[in-house]
Design a protein that fits this description.
Layout lengths: L1 E7 L20 H13 L9 E8 L7 H14 L2 E11 L6 H10 L3 E7 L3 H7 L5 H14 L3 E7 L6 H14 L3 E6 L7 H7 L8 H17 L3 E4 L2 E3 L6 H7 L3 E5 L4 E3 L3 E5 L3 H9 L5 E5 L2 H12 L6 E2 H8 L3 H4 L1 H9 L3 E3 L3 E4 L1 H4 L2 H8 L2
Parallel strand pairs: 1-2, 1-9, 2-3, 3-4, 4-5, 5-6
Antiparallel strand pairs: 6-8, 7-8, 10-11, 11-12, 13-15, 14-15
The structure holds S-adenosylmethionine and iron/sulfur cluster.
């Protein structure tokens, strides 16, 4: 089981909260051709037996000409052994959804869409500097359901102008579309974003911490009531619709990333492609190294396991940690675990440790306590 990630670094305009790597130029050909070249030269020499997931992320893969996506997919199929049931996801923005695009994505092999809605509330969408309107989001979900059974909707909470009322309203709208998978992220203020500048200049009003916790509480309760499994802190799924690609990340599987800023992991090393478009193109053209890599220490691997697994419903497995890394987690962290149990932040049985709903709201605090 291994995954391929392709980073498509273009967006129509910059959302005020986002610091993923993207450019708003609409000249796409050179970078896309370089991504195809990167797959061809295979400089990282990963020894991957079987690809079970392919993920076009961004940026905004839905703005790119489908012919390019097809060539990229063909190249991956040519270079790797791709399983017949491979999950092939494409991140899309509502303003790009059209009957023609949906048909073309399906034709080239995409079998899962992840639609970035963020909110259906017009004032919030404007504040976030999104391209689309709430109505456009609703229309695009309706349309994509005609072509894709497997899809996910991204929403955010804790945004400026959000409240328990707006979250309730977003959840109600969401329910009417019955998506098989939902990702809901707590909006964070990232470096080099418009929101960060506005916050520094005291020009941004954010909901208070207890208001944000209330929003998350409603999300957890309502989505459970609607029949979703909260299989990872920010991810909710109907039966059989987990994101296989993201589950691979959380299960310590290998993944290889192509495109500027893409990450890769071969179970020993972590790799980061350069995140400057021009340098990425130049280095690949000159056949020079275009990524950095770091060998993970045992401590980093243990902490990575704790950090990712505590967020999932599998939780931290004491036996697995002993088998994989020879640590006696329950014994070595017994006093911290006891404290967290007393605060009703975690549950623990013979084998595993999981977050309670109360714990999910402050997972960073908990991870800090139990990391090595
Ligand atoms: C890499 S973005 C790309 C998706 C797509 N371009 C879009 O805008 O919907 C994937 C998701 O990350 C989330 N995201 C981006 N910036 C975030 C932030 N600062 N805090 C929380 N979630 C964020 C959004 O929900 C977004 O849909
Ligand atoms: S959220 Fe999506 S559309 Fe907005 S800037 Fe980030 S990647 Fe681009």
């Amino acid at each position: 089981m291994a995954g391929v990630y392709i980073h498509i670094p273009f967006c129509k305009k910059a959302c005020h909260y986002c610091n993923f790597h993207f450019s708003t130029l609409n000249k796409h050909d050179e970078i896309l051709n370089t991504i195809i070249q990167e797959i061809e030269i295979n400089q990282k020499k990963f020894k991957i037996k079987n690809i079970s997931t392919i993920y076009f992320g961004g940026g905004t893969p839905s703005i790119v000409d489908e012919n390019f996506l097809e060539i990229i997919l063909r190249k991956i199929f040519q270079k790797y052994n791709v399983s017949k049931k491979c999950e092939i996801t494409l991140e899309a923005n509502p303003d790009d959804i059209s009957e023609e695009k949906l048909k073309n994505w399906k034709k080239i092999g995409v079998n899962r869409l992840s639609l970035g809605v963020q909110s259906f509330n017009e004032s919030i969408l404007k504040k976030l500097n999104r391209v689309h309107s709430g109505d456009q989001a609703k229309k695009s979900i309706k349309l994509l359901k005609k072509y894709f059974e497997n899809f996910s909707i991204d929403l955010m909470f804790g945004t400026p102008l959000s409240s328990v009322k707006t979250v309730n309203s977003d959840l109600k709208t969401l329910k009417s579309f019955d998506p098989p998978h939902i990702s809901i992220y707590n909006m964070t203020i990232e470096n080099k974003t418009v929101f960060q500048k506005q916050l520094e200049n005291k020009k941004l009003i954010l909901p208070k911490e207890d208001e944000i916790l209330k929003q998350y509480d409603i999300i957890l309760k309502k989505l459970e009531r609607y029949g979703y499994e909260n299989y990872e802190i920010s991810n909710f799924s109907k039966k059989g619709f987990y994101s296989k690609h993201n589950s691979n990340y959380w299960n310590d599987e290998q993944y290889i990333g192509f495109g500027p800023s893409a990450h890769s992991y071969d179970k020993k090393y972590r790799y980061w492609n350069i995140n400057k478009n021009k340098a990425y193109i130049d280095l690949i053209n000159k056949k020079e190294i275009y990524y950095e890599k770091e060998k993970l220490t045992l401590k980093q691997k243990i902490n990575e396991y704790i950090l990712t697994r505590i967020r999932t419903n599998k939780g931290i497995n004491n036996y697995e940690l002993k088998k994989k890394y020879n640590v006696q987690f329950f014994k070595e962290k017994s006093s911290e675990i006891l404290m967290l149990l007393n605060e009703n932040l975690i549950t623990k049985d013979k084998l595993s440790l999981n977050l309670t709903n109360k714990g999910k709201k402050i997972s960073d605090y908990i991870t800090e306590k139990i990391m090595y």
